[in-house]
Amino acid sequence: MDQTALRYFLEVARSGSLSKASERLFVAVSALSRQIAKLEEQMGTPLFERRPRGMVLTDAGRLLANHARRSALEEERVIDEIHGLSASGRATIRIAASEGVAPDFLPQVFAHFRKTHPLAHFQLDVSAPSIATQRVRDGTHDIAVCFSMAPEEDVQVHYAQRAPVYALMRRGHPLASRNMLSLSDLLKWPLAMHNQGVTLRQLFDIACSLEGLVFEPVFISNYHVALQSYVRRTDAITLTGYVTVRGRLKTDGLAAIALSNPELHQRTLQVQTMAGRTLPQPVIAFVDLLKQAIDTPELVD
């Protein structure tokens, strides 16, 4: 297959329209359209559904896009390994992650990894879990470390661990001595809550709906560090995953208490890569360290 046509095809698939792809590639729309038509003729089937709001991949188009992405990454891996023969193993590992693992956990793992791989470089991009997973599918990132509530297509899950939701409060809070709480126990306390769209908030809303609980948060934010800072200074309570705060409970004077509501136990922390991709050796080594660090916090704390 013509590599230029494949590159144009992938950009149209990524952007969802010929005009947007034209702007990014600096190629005329008519030239893009001809290349797509050429590929469709070669494949003997439509690769896109032409809709009023843009171009959507058909099943055949998705198969070709996945193949093309894997092929491009495989070519990149081989080139990087050849360059590595003369560059003493230098590698850039691109990671897409949920916000909950970005401030503390991942930097700890980066620092530990560089002790044994001193020429490793990291690129970290933080986003909603669905976007992190999509970045791995698209091949722009090597690894996604994110929370998930359902199986994902076209990704390989190297590791998954249950990631229940905890109530987070200052250590001197009246509820901090409890071993277990339920959401109903939090009703009389001010609540600091995440914006809608993150898995934690979705599980919270489901649990409240099933139990008929109504909360009016005093503070809503899409930045969990701000929520934690607020509860440290007040009697408010926020929700969190344990891996998000485990390294700062003692230093920040916080307590994380397990919640008994079953709905709050329905997500996992996952380490994902593109399905079918052959990973470079540094990425494989980093995935192995990630799994160890999730299981054994003291390894990197």
UniProtKB/TrEMBL annotation:
Name the domain of life.
Bacteria
Q: Which PROSITE patterns match?
A: HTH_LYSR (PS50931)
InterPro entries in UniProt: HTH-type_LysR_regulators, LysR_HTH_N, LysR_subst-bd, WH-like_DNA-bd_sf, WH_DNA-bd_sf
List GO terms (cellular component aspect).
Answer: cytosol
Which key words are in the record?
Answer: DNA-binding, Transcription, Transcription regulation
Please give the Gene Ontology molecular function terms for this protein: DNA binding; DNA-binding transcription factor activity
Q: Which PANTHER family match?
A: HTH-TYPE TRANSCRIPTIONAL REGULATOR YBHD (PTHR30419), NITROGEN ASSIMILATION TRANSCRIPTIONAL ACTIVATOR-RELATED (PTHR30419:SF8)
> What protein name is recorded for this chain?
Transcriptional regulator, LysR family
